[in-house]
Amino acid sequence: MSSLFPVLVDDAVPEGDGCVRLRLVASNGDDQLPGFEPGAHVDVVTPSGLVRQYSLCGSADDPSAYELCVRREEASRGGSDSLCAQARKGMELQISMPRNAFPLPEAQRYVLVAGGIGITPLLSMIRRLERKGADWQLYYYARDPESAPFGDMLREAPYAQRVRFSSSLRNGYPDALTTPSTGTVIMLCGPDGFMKAVRARAEEAGWPQDAIRTEYFRPSETSIPLTDQPFQVVLARSGQVVTVPSDQSIASALMVAGIDVSLSCEQGMCGACVVPILAGEGEHRDMVLTEEEQEHSIALCCSRSRTPSLTLDM
Ligand code: FES
Q: Which residues form the FAD-binding FR-type domain (predicted)?
């Protein structure tokens, strides 16, 4: 973690379903904080003492405050939960200098694709793009679009005409992905399975890899690279066989093959994607199933296979 400095919580308000938006200002009386570019994030030492990364979602052109949006994780280990529960106006927090692993490149046109709380880095981009009069479009996927973080703001001028909401990729991929276009970049942020599925669809349509910019959004303590061997999944009810490549989750491989998958957290935390295993042995990477449950069930969003083939009851 880079060196820290203190900031004051200037405002802490509910944002969408289950999130809290924090406004942070300098604690030394300065009217300015260190500058940042859209896509940047900071480390935050949460009230529980754990360090978490959050994208800066406010305007990079307003140096007077940082804005963060914190989602209370269903299986929080205490970081986001303590921020959501305890952050109050006047509280001092330690944060790092902003770092940017997801910079906004120069382009003629921008297609932004957000999955859930992955909206946060894209929000600072949207504010900048709108200010510059750039050509942009946002596809925002959220379980419940009505209560999505920043949904109310994005339904209003000047953003509304450029924003499309959807509850799931099952309702359709962004139509802008169907035709690769020179001079356009895709900025993509959300859960792993979501991003892999969107990237796979864009590459299938012929978008060059360097036109697709991504930032992975998952708690660092659960980061597990999906670099293992490909394997096959047999769907017992239809007999369909799907290959899961080394860089995709079972859920994304199934979705790319057009198969319906229930997803929610996409991080092995909620159990929405759990299905029974009929044959084969899972390599479990979730945090939701007990050891006993893992003997006969698997979380499609994050787990893999120890055997060349897994037969699932679906
Ligand atoms: S979608 Fe939540 S555990 Fe897989």
A: 2-105
Q: Identify the pLDDT of residue 57.
A: 97
Look at residue 69 in the predicted model and tell me its pLDDT: 95
Residues with CB under 6 A from ligand 1: 263-266, 268-273, 286, 288, 299, 301
Answer yes or no: is pLDDT of 107 > 50.
Answer: yes
User: Which ligand 1 atom lies nearest to the CA of residue 264?
Assistant: 1
Distance 18 CA to ligand 1 centre (A): 17
134/278 Cα distance (integer angstroms) = 52
pLDDT tens digit sequence for 228-286: 689 999 999 999 999 998 878 899 899 888 898 887 667 776 678 899 999 999 988 87
